[in-house]
Amino acid sequence: MCVFKEGELAILYDNKGRRYLVTLQKGGAFHYHSGVVAHEEIIGKKEGSVVTSSLGAKLLVFRPSLEEYILEMPRGAQVMYAKDCALIGALADIKPRDRIVEAGTGSGALTLFLCRQANQGIVYTYEKREDFARIADKNLRRWGAENFVLKIKDIKEGIDEEDVDKVVLDLPEPWEVLDVVKRALRPGGFFVSFLPTILQVHRLVMALKEIGGFSQIRVQEALLRPWVIDERIARPELRMVAHTGFLVIARRLADEP
Ligand code: SAH
């Protein structure tokens, strides 16, 4: 049950910690600077096994976590980090059976997290650039995500869905689509916007108050500080991702008659 099968994704780690993502195929081979590994060497092995390349280099093999997969998949736009995806999941209460609208899709990193958390629900994801949408579609399918509908459409032109549970935006000018969002979101539904700069945050919060129909407006930032722990060392890593973006979260009010 736990051994690798043909068609599955595998992630290979070399002794320097470099990662390589492969889809296992009979007759397939993984080539890198330290030789070749036939996919058949991996098929039938357990996760956490070591395989040896044609030049004698050792590689550790696992099934990729979603975080690892996202770091290795092809990108169009910059992808959202796992810390921000996770915080969106928690603060916007993303859960099974949710109907979610997302824009823009970009490379599909956040879409993958949303699809997983909205298990048995559905993610309608809007991307205005056809080239990015094509990359995202491949990334989503390769991972095996099925509960999404990818639309090549500028969300400014409107959201086709009604009464959705969540609207999640990762685009630069969210204040321009608030009227559209307001119409699509059900009473009590969550609105989330990811923004890299605080000037955008300020503008969006002012716009949310101006348009009305939203409450419980919050702004949050996720800082993740990886640490090094060794026999004689216990300190934060010297270099880290200092900033990605802010989250603006709000809930839709019921329209008064
Ligand atoms: N969250 C994504 C990255 C999004 S990058 C990920 O994790 O992979 C922002 C994307 O929004 C870009 O691909 C851009 O083309 C798209 N975009 C910007 N404005 C848009 C709009 N009005 N409608 C739809 N897509 C838009």
Estimate the global geometry from the Cα principal axes: globular
Bound compounds: S-adenosyl-L-homocysteine
- Helical amount: 25-40%
Distance between the termini: 57 Å
Q: What does the largest sheet look like?
A: 7 strands, mixed
Mean pLDDT: 97
Number of strands: 15
- Total DSSP helices: 7
> What integer value in Å does the Rg equal?
21 Å
Strand percentage: 25-35%
Run of helices and strands: EEEEHEEHHEHEHEEHEHEEEE
Class derived from helix and strand content:
alpha/beta
Strands of the largest sheet, in order across it? 9-8-7-10-11-15-12
Are there runs of 5+ residues with pLDDT below 50, and where? none
What are the key terms here?
alpha/beta, 15 strands, four-stranded antiparallel sheet, single chain, 257 residues
Structure description:
The protein has 257 residues and is α/β, with parallel strands linked by helices. The chain has 7 helices and 15 strands. The strands form 4 sheets. The chain has a 7-stranded mixed sheet with strand order 9-8-7-10-11-15-12, sandwiched between helices. Strands 2-1-6-5 form a 4-stranded antiparallel sheet, with helices on one face. Strand 3 and strand 4 form a beta hairpin. The N and C termini lie far apart (57 Å). The model has no long low-confidence stretch (mean pLDDT 97). The structure holds S-adenosyl-L-homocysteine.
